[in-house]
Design goal:
Layout (H helix, E strand, L loop, with lengths): L3 E10 L5 E6 L6 E2 L2 E3 L6 H13 L6 E13 L2 H11 L3 E11 L15 E7 L14 H12 L4
Parallel strand pairs: 1-6
Antiparallel strand pairs: 1-4, 2-3, 2-7, 5-6
């Protein structure tokens, strides 16, 4: 039986309508939305608030959740699936995406958290998101998310 680890991701949009994307510290050139696993006993919303604080330094008061979509799934690549199965007990992830509107009073993004998940960040127009920035196993999910939140095809 295939098991999926619960995961959340934040699609953060600023006042200019730009998306926050972050470059993975361990994989130069790999850009994604802030995301992470849902801990035992944690709701998806609590996981969102924790992950966004840990990865980019925004507190819940700095943004407003304006949309939510769930049920996006992907399997880990075969090369790492065994390791992930031992670590998390799952073959892949089932993600809940939250569309978050950043408040004007929010501080600058801080990707230099400890431990450092990201090395850099950028604000881009939604149509400028490039699926080639992602590992191939995540591309279908991001394509669906962009269609569902922004009504656009990538």
């Amino acid at each position: 039986m295939v098991r999926y680890r619960p995961n959340v991701a934040a699609v953060v949009v600023n006042a200019a309508g730009r998306l926050l994307i972050c470059e993975r510290a361990s994989i130069p050139g790999a850009w994604q939305f802030p995301q992470g696993g849902v801990d035992m006993g944690e709701s998806p919303e609590q996981a969102l608030f924790r992950e966004v604080r840990e990865e980019v330094g925004f507190e819940p008061r700095h943004y407003k959740v304006i949309g939510q979509r769930t049920g996006y799934r992907y399997l880990y690549p075969q090369a790492v699936r065994g390791k992930k199965l031992r670590k998390h007990g799952s073959h892949g992830q089932e993600q809940t995406y939250f569309l978050c509107k950043l408040k004007r009073s929010a501080p600058q993004v801080n990707v230099h958290q400890t431990p450092q998940e990201f090395r850099a960040y950028r604000w881009i127009q939604p149509e400028d998101f490039d699926l080639d920035w992602l590992p191939s196993f995540k591309r279908d999910v991001y394509r669906e998310v962009m269609r569902d939140f922004f009504k656009m095809e990538l």
